[in-house]
Each structure stands twice: as C-alpha cells, then as structure tokens.
Amino acid sequence: MLVKETVIRPIGNSAGVSIPKAMLERLHLREGDKVYLRETAEGVLVTALDERFVRAMEALEEGMRSYRNAMRELAKK
C-alpha cells in the first residue's frame, strides 16, 4: 500500500486534504466523487467504498442464490 504525506488545509469553514493526481488516477477517482471517512484504531481511513452498499449487494446476491429458480421464473415474465 502506497503511503503519501499530505497537509490539512483550510477550505472555507472546513478543512481538507489534497490527494496527489497519480493516486487519484490509480484509484479511478476524480473531482466530485464521494469518499467516506472512517475513524479506525490506526487513524482515519478515506475510502471510495460505501460498506453499507457492499453489505446490501452481498445480501442481494445471497437472496438471488437462495431463490435462483424463482428468479428464473420471474425473468421469463
């Protein structure tokens, strides 16, 4: 995992950090994309991944596997 130092800077009444262009490109991020901040034991994790969405998709996939035959029949209609 690449570690890059950055500085917290004032942005209006808030503060923010800048992410190097090369890192944004590797992570397929651009201006305007949402990121999520999570406090961890090691500090702050900044991620483009919304874990609630991931859990919802996992539940959907499990339901689709469990009810595969019913889904197939519904798709025919």
Describe this structure in words.
The chain has 77 residues and is an alpha+beta fold. The chain has one domain. Helix content is 40%, strand content 21%. The strands form two sheets. Strands 1-2 form a two-stranded antiparallel ribbon. Strands 3-4 form a two-stranded antiparallel ribbon. The longest helix is centred in the last third of the chain and has 16 residues. The chain starts with 8 loop residues before the first strand and ends with a helix. The mean pLDDT is 88.
Topology:
Elements (H helix, E strand, L loop, with lengths): L8 E3 L2 E3 L4 H6 L9 E5 L2 E5 L3 H16 L1 H9 L1
Helicity level, as a percent range?
40-55%
Distance between the termini: 48 Å
Compute the number of strand runs: 4
Order of SSEs, N→C? EEHEEHH
Low-confidence region ranges: none
The overall average pLDDT, rounded, is 88
Major sheet characteristics: 2 strands, antiparallel
* Gyration radius from CA atoms, angstroms: 19 Å
State the gist of this model:
With 77 residues, this protein is of the alpha+beta class. It has one domain (9-76).
